[in-house]
């Protein structure tokens, strides 16, 4: 363990202890991950009836909806193998549902418009139905919004994705998750049902210091929405994965695609959103990806910042009551006591032909700077900061592909006296009369 310093550890533990005591949580564990390694672990409370011991790294808790991110990872693997396209309508793979027009990407991002909960008893507190019986209960009335119209969280959507994985892989969804995600990442303590040692899920009385054990069931066809149990140690490995240590399970590009906002909250500036199977949030300059989870008697959250290679998580055996800010408070403490130092700058070799491209360019009268990046990419940025900025990477045919910003996915072509980005012409001089479009402009005059 690349441990944090003693002062930092004490501050982190105090924040955890205050949460456990003031929110009356039977037990609470938390961890910090830095650069793929566990940097800090803390725990308070008791995990079960008659258990006075503090939970350990190996004590299991329910993951709840963090399960969805694991299922989504297998779906993305299927996409990368060419077994499906994210724009495939569900009917192509699951023709026996009334939601055939919803596509795979919409299910992953909760924008398919499906009902949040299945047409059963309260599924989190009752035994589940087999897939065929659950599918037979769905009708057109369970589509609540036009596909793509809005974010509407749907546990049903991930039950359908679990069935999709089962049919395309030819094995139960959980076996696919086990073989393709858990085993390669070394998450051997993540299981379908609890195994010892595990915490008991409790509801804490709102007006008295007494607890009530919560039920635990096999949720069958709804299991992909929130079935799994795991440990702090395993969830720390998952935090490292989301931060970018993929262990070969996904390509870095596919994981980055999962972290891209597919939908965001409706506000003046977005603070939370959803990607492809991953929740997103912004905090203190960080762009965090991960997921929250809740099931009867349990709460869990994992967030990771790929830019800083840091992750944070907690697990608790209570139905409700924790403060939303606990994980980001822990990150704030880490930043206060042990801010990450930037890597030392070092000179890097530059292709003379690329070096000659750098400097000032103009889109009409607007000046832009073009600089060479350490990985041989190019960054086109408006002088003064306001405007369309993008990075570009070289392609085998001599063109450049936009990575982000307005020109994401667009092609940059380099000519002798101008740059052409999908018909937008950049020249060394403002409105160079020799350059194409607009070209041939009259002289500047007062």
TrEMBL record:
Signal peptide boundaries: none
Listed EC numbers: 3.-.-.-
Domain DUF7586: 351-428
EC category name: hydrolase
Beta-lactamase-related domain segment(s): 20-321
Keywords per UniProt: Hydrolase
Transmembrane segments: none
rRNA processing found in the keyword field: no
Domain of life: Bacteria
Pfam families: Beta-lactamase, DUF7586
An MF annotation (GO) of this entry: hydrolase activity
Protein name: Serine hydrolase domain-containing protein
Upper lineage: Bacteria, Bacillati, Actinomycetota, Actinomycetes, Streptosporangiales
